[in-house]
Structures are given as structure tokens and as C-alpha cells.
Specification:
6 helices, mainly alpha, 126 residues
């Protein structure tokens, strides 16, 4: 749950969905579920909701926003960031569903010999 790690995790989740989903309908539902779940944790971390404290403390961050913005690697202002930081954060959050979908597309194009469970009645890639 950081802006550095989330896209990579979402890509991996998308590739996994593509590999194991029985049909396109199930894959789309899984995409939505994954993106929604990650957003349900990441947005509250960014907003520094009290219940998220164990999450960002586990990574030795000073706050949820510090964790989301800096991931222990950067030094962006997180205590009282300018409004453009919040706008950028909202824009990044808006891309989360796209990362899951891109993971699925990547798997379709690059997986060699990976079994895909498919239904004889529903085409997965239409």
C-alpha cells in the first residue's frame, strides 16, 4: 500500500487473474474486487485514518501519507503537503483499476504454456 508498490502488486494480481479465471465475466469481477480492495486500504492509509496505523508502522513510516508518498525511499513533503500533492494522489488512485487490467493483458501476451481454465460456453478473450 504505497504509490511505489501498489501498481506492481496490481499488475501481478491482474496476471494471476488472467491465469486462473474461468471466464471473462469472472475475470472482470476479480479485477473489480482486487482494485476495490487495494483502494479500500490505500486511500485510508493516505488519509491517515487511525485504524491504518499498524500498516504504515510495520514499514517504519512516520504516517500513512509518508508511507504512501515516500515508501521509505523518497522525501516528499507529507506533513502538510501542497494541494497539488492531493490532486496527484487522487489521480494515481484513479489508475489502480488500469494496473489490474494491464496485468491481465501482459499475461495474455507473454505467458508461454500457462494453462488457462476456460468454459466451453464463454470465450475468455472477447
Amino acid at each position: 500500500m504505497s504509490f511505489l508498490a501498489d501498481p506492481l502488486l496490481l499488475l501481478a494480481a491482474g496476471a494471476t487473474i488472467e491465469r486462473v479465471a474461468p471466464d471473462e465475466r469472472a475475470a472482470r469481477r476479480a479485477e473489480l474486487a482486487v482494485a476495490s480492495t487495494v483502494l479500500a486500504f490505500s486511500v485510508p492509509v493516505y488519509l491517515e485514518m487511525r485504524w491504518t496505523r499498524p500498516i504504515w508502522r510495520a514499514f517504519h513510516a512516520r504516517s500513512g501519507r509518508d508511507f504512501m508518498l515516500n515508501s521509505g525511499l523518497f522525501h516528499f513533503e507529507y506533513v502538510d503537503p501542497p494541494p497539488r500533492t492531493h490532486v496527484a494522489a487522487a489521480a494515481i488512485f484513479a489508475t489502480y483499476p488500469m494496473w489490474v487490467h494491464l496485468g491481465r493483458r501482459w499475461h495474455r501476451r507473454h505467458a508461454i504454456g500457462s494453462p488457462v481454465v476456460s468454459s466451453p460456453h464463454v470465450s475468455k478473450h472477447h
